[in-house]
Amino acid sequence: MNHDLGSIAAALVAKGKGILAADETVPTLTKRFDALKIQSTEESRRTYREMLFASVGAAEFISGVIMHDETIRQKSSSGVSFAQLLSDQGILPGIKVDTGAKPLAGSFDEKITEGLDGLRDRLSEYRSMGARFAKWRAVIRIADNLPSAACVSANAHALGRYAALCQEQHLVPIVEPEVLMDGSHTIARCEEVTGVVLHAVFRALFEQRVVLECMLLKPNMVIAGEECSPPDKVKEVAVATLRCLRQHVPAAVPGIVFLSGGQDDLVATAHLNAINRLPGPNPWKISFSYGRALQDPALKAWHGRDENLQLGQQALYHRARCNGAASLGAYTD
Ligand code: 13P
């Protein structure tokens, strides 16, 4: 079993490839559609996802796609399940399995990600539908007295429990502890908090006996809050991010795939590229698992119109290709 999961984890970070996160919940995708005045219906969301998943050539740079529950149950216009449509192109189907970040009792404005109840059965069903890996996102907010120790440990514990269940059910867990960019904190504060969070997460993974060789980490980059000015320099983000990861991510983990977290798409590519250009060697592959930074240009190009489907696909292909190059430190703008 472990050998199988190890090969899937390795395939997700194969040379020059990364992951497309297309697992927005219905309310989140509706918000993105609303901003462009695109009507959000089950069918318009299906059409959008089909556009992304059927982008010709993108499989050269995309190893896996993370879907949402609604999407993994949908089919392409020719009647093939989305999991099959992806597998047919050599792309691994993945699934978001947490049920969202809810207010953490006893804390001020912090969240705990839920979804452990009944998770074993849901994982088993998703695997039978073709999923080969899963994702669970925890969110940590930085403010004057935050994050609290309670928020960090509760979220780390849940990530450990989730990852252990995934491996039991033959799915590779992507462990995503996201330190948010919201706020005016400095890059140094982000580095400090990211370090504390990663330390807690790997302790919880160890306690829950998660096999590190058979998982991927999906962290934030170390970056100042979006209200902090002036913005960080690309090199500064790369150096702080790699330093923090080297201090806290065990060498047994095969890959680190960043979330984009609200970074502009070009900036997210430049950061990934700069990290991969720093002197190595690194024990893990470093690539992307971007949502907005891969999808935004495609969503804008499509704009909800059938006649723009090809433009949307070209936009996704282009960003996937740029990020594939950045995963090798070979991106030139
Ligand atoms: P973003 O890259 O838009 O942050 O999304 C990644 C993701 O999967 C969030 O859970």
TrEMBL record:
Keywords annotated in UniProt: Glycolysis, Lyase
Pathway, per record: Carbohydrate degradation; glycolysis; D-glyceraldehyde 3-phosphate and glycerone phosphate from D-glucose: step 4/4
Catalytic function, reaction form: beta-D-fructose 1,6-bisphosphate = D-glyceraldehyde 3-phosphate + dihydroxyacetone phosphate
An example Gene Ontology molecular-function term: fructose-bisphosphate aldolase activity
EC supergroup of this enzyme: lyase
InterPro entries given in the database record: Aldolase_TIM, FBA_I
Keyword Nuclease among UniProt keywords: no
EC assignment: 4.1.2.13
Pfam family, one: Glycolytic
The keyword Lyase is annotated on this UniProt entry: yes
GO annotation, biological process: glycolytic process
Domain of life, per lineage: Bacteria
Matching NCBIfam families: FrucBisAld_I
Stated family: Belongs to the class I fructose-bisphosphate aldolase family.
Name of the featured protein: Probable fructose-bisphosphate aldolase class 1
